[in-house]
Amino acid sequence: MRTPSAKRLLTTLAVSVLVAAGTASAQESSSPGAPATRPAAWTDGQTRGAKPTVILVHGVFADASGFSDTIALLQRAGYQVIAPANPLRDLEGDAAYVSSVIDTVPGPVVLAGHSYGGAVITNAARGHANVKALVYLGAFAPDKGESPLELAGRFPGSELAPALTTRHYPLPEGEGTDGYIAPEKFRAVFAADLPAHKTRIMAATQRPGSVEGLSEASGEPGWKTVPSWYLIPNQDKVIPPAAQRFMAERAGSRVTEIRSSHAVMMSHPGATTAVIRAADAATR
Question: Residue 74 class from Cβ within 10 Å (0-12 exposed, 13-18 middle, 19+ buried)?
Fold first, then answer.
């Protein structure tokens, strides 16, 4: 555990680095629920013409490496890309973390989320005037008061629940519960269109999600004020395609459907990139 003096030292060092690099911003905090503000460096010229920074948010049972091929395609097309490690602890905290990443970007942003990452970007977008588009990739787009687990179970077709296994982890008070997909069921449920040798590694390295976090009610959704795009993998066994169609229609999203497993950004990075670029082009 860091001592207060260690925390102060880390804070001082971080501020020094920011000042030296010239990246400190006059932007006000844009955590979920904060008033929308325009970053000082986000000029009208940037709004009209600059390529946005694309922030890619992974979900549960995966990590940021799942976006590797998509990142390569976006970078080749001239985009700056950030794919942070989603904490996967609780929805409010995860959204606050991604919001803090957005705080560091002075220009326009396209937020893209896969699976539970969609619920995170739905909340993280609040208070950020520079978020120009939300892109849902086989993802949750909850309304206020809805949880990812509740949405997944509202429509038939998910095979996630019987495939889950749990492990407990300690908390300062009590314990939490992490959910994993059982390795022998991982490929069929999560990534049936990827090679077995690859999904065995994915199953072994999967990042679990807190069951409590997946059950947490979402806040006011960003899609009510930010235009959205939706890539629906119609062979999804985690989030039923019917649930995704319902969420996309409710959000007024522009929809693309593709024959894919839940791991759409891995099995179809080209289609994933195309939707992100379409969102950028339409909001220039």
Answer: buried
